[in-house]
Model the fold of this input.
Amino acid sequence: MARTVAGLPEGTRVSDYVTLGVLADRIPVSRVHEVLRQEGRQSQRERLLPAYVMVYYVVALALYMHVSYSEVLRCVVEGLQWLGWPIRHVRQTGRSGISQARSRLGFQPMKRLYEELVLPITTENTRGAHYRQWRLVSIDGSTEFPPLSRTDSLSRLVC
Done:
């Protein structure tokens, strides 16, 4: 008997169901603080948008590409408050404040977190994950992803 294909309601995306709790679980705040310290990018004073909040904001921007910057920031701040993080002093700012905070953060901490946390989730013994000596990789249909340099390998792109 034929079944209908399961799918999301029209107008929704998978990323709409990804919560900040999942991001906080996959990108531990302790590791974010450590990388920011090592890269010299931690906030030197209490700012409206501290560096660790900006890390989660940049990741959320990739998930919600079609939403305005200020709306993504609002969702990130509300999500972090819901998780119980002490961010009462964080508040909505204008476009220039967001831009300045992103500039202060730079790309180095994001690159380092990516290199440390984005790892293959399979082993050589994971059934169905390899064909001969090659790791199987699937692309989720995204239209944009970082270009691979000669030193990168497709094994870093695991969905």
Summary: The chain has two domains: 14-117, 120-159. The first strand starts at residue 130 and ends at 131. Strands lie at 130-131, 134-135. The helical segments are 20-26, 29-38, 51-63, 69-82, 95-105, 108-117.
